[in-house]
Design goal:
Three copies of one chain form a homotrimer.
Chain A (H helix, E strand, L loop, with lengths): L1 E6 H12 L4 E7 L2 E7 L5 E8 L5 E4 L2 E6 H10 L5 E7 L4 E6 L2 E6 L19 E6 H12 L4 E7 L4 E7 L4 E7 L5 E3 L3 E6 H10 L5 E6 L5 E7 L4 E7 L7
Antiparallel strand pairs in A: 1-5, 1-7, 2-3, 2-6, 3-4, 4-18, 7-8, 8-9, 10-14, 10-16, 11-12, 11-15, 12-13, 16-17, 17-18
């Protein structure tokens, strides 16, 4: 059983943060909210999303599991005008999801969850450094790095106590330093890792400019990024594996 | 003889409602206004447009007929800034149309009307149902249907007294019901017909979001849609032939 | 030695007015400001730009010469948000230009000036007619002419005392007449020349809509256009060679 009413904005935010990595996903319809975990085909980027029951206007579920084509569901949410609500209801018999927006009913065929890539176990990592920054600073770093390179180094200078972003291109370089004053928070620790810019660009697309993003970093370790949406009732965790440093 | 001054907005609205179906058309320069009738190459969609002399700042004509390339004339109207007027004058000798916008003169070569597809006779049809709705609801129905299918069923439920839109895709369906409360007006009658979405999408492009659109429907019959523009001094009628129901 | 701070808007305006003609250019870092001269590969369009030291928040230079990839430098300026400043500093040893925007540092590899097309000597021409008009009227003329042709005639009617624009297409023509009343200033003289519209369209892109553009014209002679930016502390001169009249 699944029956819920949610603002189109909240639904879109939730779906967008997953669809930057995968096209299809499993959605766990838990009693206390939705839960999605997914990993991209190359096994490099992972997402763990939860959307609390409190983020919905009304919410009833009893632990079911559905598989969805994300772009379809995003299109449905995108049909709503600003401020409109989306009513969702699962038809257990036909395995279809009914979405209703102001009298318009969309019947979405679900995907067999068994046909969808297995959900990842996102590991607990004891990462030594934490940087908390605004979404727009993530965007700024990623956009600048993208001008010169296809990978990006993120790290923390322990002595000088700043977070840095480095991108080295064939001819040009980009370097950004953010001290504790520029950041919301900085927990200094040994951290320097190289990442694929393509993945960070995708993840960046889903991060609101005004979101508070916590990024945990280590020495040639994955990065984990956390941010909230829907007034904190939705939470996203991204994990991105590092690239091997060539030098 | 033809000499007229008209706001660029009004001229654009008139041309756009025809150009969604055809690239060239004949324009009748009647004493009481312009008149255009056209049918698309496949003979499926027809348009009948009239723009009253009152819609013009000034208007003089004596029943001539010209053939025009619609995109050319739309480009001319598009050069004007908001609120600017377009002066049109036919040079009978050279068979060219002079368009003038704030000192800028554009000389448009006309097309021999005989080389343009014959104008359709749009039949009088005694259609049993009438639905009057806002342009934005037409847009909503067409946009939603387009997500799942390339055709769309429009009909009226006589028992429950509502207008409905149905689109069935390979996996997903869209269904919209609008009761008399959701509509500007509803005259219940036996009506259910299937239409090509491509045509409705094109016609929808020319329908202003705030227009009052009257749609006449029957049982496997064409749909006729009427709406006004230029404060009611322009009138458009679209007629679209039904598709044969496959089931 | 070169060290300067400038608003991103001013830097972008300067670069854009050159990049419409060439991809790379030499920049003279004079004591009293920047100076760029460039000619397009076909030797048809030339630009002479100066940006006074006063246009900068701070400016120090001693007559150096650098070669830059314009789109790279434009991208850097484009990263800044509205109102942000760009700090530029030349590293003489590495021959790299450091650009800094709010903590973000971009290191730009310079190009050997000797590898860049030689700078043109923009000739002094004693052109008999001068037309001073708003940038938006240049845009209007170029946009209209582009609808019918790939070249454009500019001239002055000495008897009737107006500036005119003529574009003749295969079927359609565009004609614009601007009298002294429509212009900021008009110095009547013998002038009629044909120009490639492609070049004028490119130059037009760099002309602000509210700029005061002075255009000097002659009889089958180049056109010279002058306009300012950055509150008059930047000056651009374009020179465009005429096309040979075919008739």
């Amino acid at each position: 059983m699944f029956k819920a009413i949610v603002s189109a904005e909240t639904l879109s935010s939730a779906l967008d943060s997953v669809s930057v990595l995968v096209e299809e996903c499993k959605i766990h319809l838990e009693e206390d909210g939705l839960r999605i975990r997914a990993v991209d085909p190359a096994n490099v980027g992972m997402v763990d999303l939860s959307l609390d029951a409190d983020a919905f206007e009304s919410y009833e579920a009893d632990g079911g599991l559905i598989g969805v084509d994300l772009s379809r569901l995003e299109d449905i949410a995108g049909m709503a005008e600003s401020g409109q609500l989306v009513q969702l209801e699962l038809d257990e018999e036909t395995r279809k999801l009914h979405a209703q927006i102001e009298g318009l009913e969309y019947t979405l065929a679900l995907i067999d969850p068994d046909s969808i890539r297995q959900e990842p176990d996102i590991p607990d990592l004891d990462l030594p450094a934490r940087v908390v920054l605004e979404g727009k600073d993530v965007n700024r770093a990623v956009t600048a790095a993208d001008m010169v390179s296809d990978h990006i180094a993120l790290g923390v200078d322990e002595a000088e106590e700043y977070f840095y972003v480095d991108a080295e291109g064939d001819t040009d370089d980009v370097h950004l330093e953010l001290t504790a004053d520029d950041l919301i928070d900085l927990e200094v620790g040994s951290a320097h890792s190289l990442f694929s810019l393509d993945y960070l660009k995708d993840m960046n697309k889903a991060i609101p400019a005004d979101a508070e993003v916590a990024a945990d970093l280590g020495e040639e370790f994955p990065i984990k990024m956390y941010f909230g949406f829907a007034e904190g009732q939705g939470q996203v965790t991204y994990m991105l594996a590092p690239r091997i440093q060539s030098d």
